[in-house]
Amino acid sequence: MSAPVGTFRGPPPETEEGIGSLTLGGLFEESCRRHGGREALVFHDDDGTVVRWSYARLRSEARAWAKALVAAGTDKGTRVGLLMGNRPEWVAAAFGVALAGGVLVPVNTFFESKELEQVLRHCDAAIVLHQRTLGHHDYDARLGELAPRLAHLRRRVCLATGDHDRFVEAGTVVADAELDARAEAVSPFDDAVVIYTSGSTSTPKGVLHDHRAPALQSWRFAHHLRLDPTVRVWSAFPFFWTAGFCMVMGATIAAGGCLVLQELFDAGRALGLLQSERVTSPHAWPHQLAALEAHAAWLATDLSSLRHVVAFTSLGRHPSVNAQDVWSPRAAYGLTETFTIISSSPADTPAGEREGNEGDILPGNALRIVDDDTGEHLPPGMAGEIRVKGPTLMKGYLKVAPEDVFDAEGFFPTGDAGFVDDDGKLHWLGRTDDLIKTGGANVSPVEIEKELLHHPDLHSALVVGVEDALLGQVVVVCAVAKAGRRVDEDGVRDFLHGRMASYKIPRHVLFFEESELVLTGNAKIRAQDLRRLASARLRMATGPD
Asked: Which of 17, 35, 321, 341 could, after both became Cys, cross-link 256 (CB 3.0–4.6 A)?
C-alpha cells in the first residue's frame, strides 16, 4: 500500500473502469456518436421558451462554435474566455473551444468589473464569448468598457446578436475535415482549461489543467455516481468551477444522460424543473437545499423521480421521495488543483463503509501526509498536511514559478489536514490553519460539522475556534435554525453527546440569521470572518474578559 514509507498510492491507472478518450474533444465526440438521438440537455428560458437538444444537435452546435473559433484565429494555446450562465450555449461553446484546440477560461458569473478585468488580463484572453446580461450583470456594457484595457483581447462575441451571427457564419468556410484534424492533433497533455479559484482570501489564482484532468474526472464521476443514459441531472453548481464542470456537466455527457439547466438558482423554479423534467439526479449546496425545503411549493411538488439523493438531506426527507441510505457521493476529497477528486468511494458503497472517511485513493494518485513542523512523511493513522500528486494534478498556477507551487518531488501541498487509516482510506480534517487546539487536543471543525448535518432542526452549522485564556481555544458552533424550528444551545450539545469525545463538544453555540453569515461566491463562509463574528458575539454576551 505504501512505498516508500509515508507515500500512499492508489491502484495502477490501467485498472480503472469506464475510462474513454482523455481529451475533452475526444470525450465529447465519443459520447455524441454513441448517444446521438438521446436528449442531451433541456433549458427553460426566462421568456418561456424551452430548448431541447439531442446529442446530435449539441454536436452540431459545438462544431459550429469550433469552426467559428478556428476562423477567428484560435490555435493551440489561444485563451478563450467563456462568460455565460449554465445554458445550452455554455456547453456547446466549451466543447467547441476544445475541438478547435484552444484553452477554455470559464469566467465566474458572480464577478464584478474589477474582478472581470483582473482575470481576463491575467489569463491573456484573446477571445471572449459572453451573454448580454445575467441577473443584475450587464456583461455587454462591462466588457465594452474593459476591452480597450485588455492588451491581448482581439475579439469578443455577444450571444444572440448580429455579431454572434456573423461570427458563426464566418466559420462555415472551415471544412469538417480540417476541424477533425485539429481535434485529433490535441494531446491529453496539451493545455485545456484555466479555472480561477474563488479568491476568498486573496486574488484568484489561475489553475492550468491539461485535457487529461477534466476528461478523466468526467468519465470517473459517471462511473462513481453510477450514472447511465437514463439519468436526468439538475444542478445549482455553476459550470465555471470544477465540480460543476466534471461532476455535473462532464459526467452527464460521458454517461449519455440529460442535463436539466438552470442559469441562476431560484428555489421555486428549481422545484418546477425537478418535477416537470422528472429529474433523477440533483446537485445543490446545503443552503440551496434548505431554500427548496422552505419554499411554499415544497410539499406540493412531486419529486418521486429522484433516485440519486442523500437520505438525510432535504430532498431525501421529502414525502414523495423513497430514499434509503444506499447512495451518497459524500465520501470523497478533492480540490480545484486536482480538478476535483483524488479519493472517493462509489456512491452506492454501503453506508457503514463510506461514513467517516473520504474514500480510497483513486488510480494513479500518490498521497503523502506531512508533519507541519518537521516535514516528516507520516505513517497510517497520524495526521498532518495532505500532499498530492497524480494524473489530474494541475500543470501549475498561471505566471507562478513551479518551485513556488510544488515541493521538490512534485507533490502539491494542499494546506488541508488529514490522515490515511490502516485500510488506506483518506480522512479529511479541514484546513491546517482551521484546526482547533483546545486544552492540548486537536479538534477538526469538519468532523463536528458533518455530525450537525444530521440535526433535524438546523439549516446550517459551522465550527470555529475562538481564543481562550485557559484552554488556548474553545470550540464554538455558529448555527442557523431552520425556519419555524426551535433549538437551543443545550439541544445542540445533547445531540452531539455520545457521538464524539467530550472535548469536541462545543463550549458555546451561537445562533445567527442566515443573512448575518457572509458567503463567498462558492458558498463557503470565510473562516476568519466567522471567527471574528463569533468572538464579537461572545464579548457582547459575556463582557471583554
From this structure: 35
